[in-house]
Inverse folding.
């Protein structure tokens, strides 16, 4: 089984992953070593702090061996085709975790390899981050039912996966972006299909940040400028400021609202210091939960892969 985005999961799958994550968090140094005698390749075309640390430590604490390679240490799609890389790596390792520029790179690794592929970030999706986010929301809000989550800013990879995750757990989500910066249309369609299937939750797109923040239980934002896209900074700074999460915007949300950001944050741009360091912020719990969610992902995927073989 591969995890390229959350649309491959069902609600019961998400519930199981969160159950595993809660167990691993409660028993961090006293749990089964499910990766014993397993090696995991972790590829980074893009640099990382939380993703690298959380995956490396997760593999170690699960009893496995991680082999980390950055873009200068692997010929992925350059001197060697992705097809050949996937086939060769599948002979060495038990799973591939990859943080890449193009989502198609992950699709090709999954297509040509014979081991599970986990998306640690692509231009389209960031499923591992969202599973950690759902764990954080569950910790603070206890239940997803009837909760409103508002995402403000750029309809980027985090937003694309968040709309799927929110739909899978039945939350009501409002996405507020400037015109032309809406989330991926196919992900929106998939989320609406999930909502229709389960008969719970909702999804709305708007260009009004106040409408999104009104009575929200969760406010979520991410950077306005993705890595490698800095050339658009001047244009972005003209149209994105109304979508900043600041103390004024907080006044529209519920009194017990939690504020989330997947980090790293451009303080003073998409979120102010007062908010990210304030009483409503849960960003550091959110970051910690990457570790526990990653362990849960490994457990779930290897269980599913084993059952598929049988």
């Amino acid at each position: 089984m591969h995890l390229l985005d959350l649309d491959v999961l069902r609600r019961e799958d998400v519930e199981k992953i969160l159950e595993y994550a809660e167990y691993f968090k409660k028993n961090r140094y006293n749990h089964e070593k499910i990766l014993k005698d397993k090696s995991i390749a972790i590829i980074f075309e893009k640099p990382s702090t939380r993703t690298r640390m959380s995956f490396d430590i997760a593999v170690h604490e699960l009893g496995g061996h991680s082999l980390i390679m950055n873009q200068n240490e692997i010929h992925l799609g350059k001197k060697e085709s992705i097809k050949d890389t996937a086939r060769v790596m599948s002979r060495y390792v038990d799973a591939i975790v990859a943080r890449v520029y193009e989502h198609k790179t992950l699709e090709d690794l999954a297509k040509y390899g014979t081991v599970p592929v986990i998306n640690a970030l692509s231009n389209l999706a960031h499923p591992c981050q969202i599973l950690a986010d759902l764990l954080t929301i569950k910790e603070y809000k206890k239940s997803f039912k009837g909760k409103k989550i508002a995402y403000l800013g750029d309809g980027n990879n985090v937003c694309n996966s968040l709309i799927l995750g929110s739909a899978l757990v039945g939350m009501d989500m409002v996405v507020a972006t400037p015109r032309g910066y809406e989330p991926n249309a196919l992900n929106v369609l998939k989320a609406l299909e999930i909502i229709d299937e389960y008969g719970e939750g909702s999804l709305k797109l708007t260009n009004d940040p106040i409408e999104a923040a009104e009575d929200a239980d969760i406010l979520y934002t991410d950077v306005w400028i993705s890595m490698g896209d800095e050339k658009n900074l001047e244009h972005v700074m003209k149209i994105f400021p109304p979508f900043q999460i600041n103390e004024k915007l907080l006044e529209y949300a519920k009194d017990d609202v939690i504020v989330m950001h997947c980090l790293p944050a451009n303080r003073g741009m998409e979120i102010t210091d007062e908010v990210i360091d304030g009483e409503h912020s849960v960003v550091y719990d959110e970051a910690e939960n990457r570790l526990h969610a990653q362990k849960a992902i490994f457990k779930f995927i290897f269980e599913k892969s084993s059952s598929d073989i049988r």
